[in-house]
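BUG-176 | component: ligand-complex export | severity: low

The export step for coenzyme A jobs runs without errors, but we want the raw record kept on the ticket for reference. Input record follows.
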Amino acid sequence: MIDLARPATHSSLMARPPRPLSPSVRRAQPADLAAVTRLINRAHAVEAFFVDGERVDHAEVAALRERGHFLILDGDGGELAAAVYVRIDDGRGTIGLLSVAPDHQGRGLGRRLVAVAEALCAAVGCVDVELAIVNLRQELGPWYRSQGYREIGTAPYDQRPVKQPCHFVRMQKALA
Ligand SMILES: CC(C)(COP(=O)(O)OP(=O)(O)OC[C@H]1O[C@@H](n2cnc3c(N)ncnc32)[C@H](O)[C@@H]1OP(=O)(O)O)[C@@H](O)C(=O)NCCC(=O)NCCS
């Protein structure tokens, strides 16, 4: 289990009143993949204005997990609060499918998962991390730029049937 989110100083011996612990980030196991699929599709329903269909199915999520890691944050009642996919190829990290459950958005979970994904990439020696956003999602560019990502190019959009023309914007961040 990756536990970067849990305060290291928490102890029952501390005199301060207890405060809620942050949820721990863990790697998704096969039993989590149905919940990962549901979460990704719920979060990406925001893309319905330009694209048809669901973002992923269970088979795709299972295949991705064979080649990389889904880092997840548990929510309530067996559902997940957030997830991100991380893959490492030849010293380069790629993150994708970042998804925060609609009722958990705006609380810092997205930023936290990006930071944990970057820490994982850095720990295995990656020099940088890359991701892609769709140009029509205008809020995402500033959001990732505020976390140190910069545009490095474009790529054709090839995921689902589109309702209007669009393309990917590739973004990259160097890891110190
Ligand atoms: C995009 C997404 C992952 C963000 O996650 P989140 O948990 O809601 O975002 P966070 O709470 O971590 O980030 C909020 C921060 O971003 C800032 N922010 C919000 N919009 C911003 C913008 N347009 N530009 C810069 N910063 C912005 C907020 O001010 C806040 O900053 P603070 O932490 O300093 O207060 C989430 O909304 C989501 O799952 N969306 C649907 C799926 C999706 O689009 N995924 C991305 C695919 S690439």
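Assignee comment: Attached the raw record above. The helical segments are 33-43, 58-67, 109-123, 140-145.
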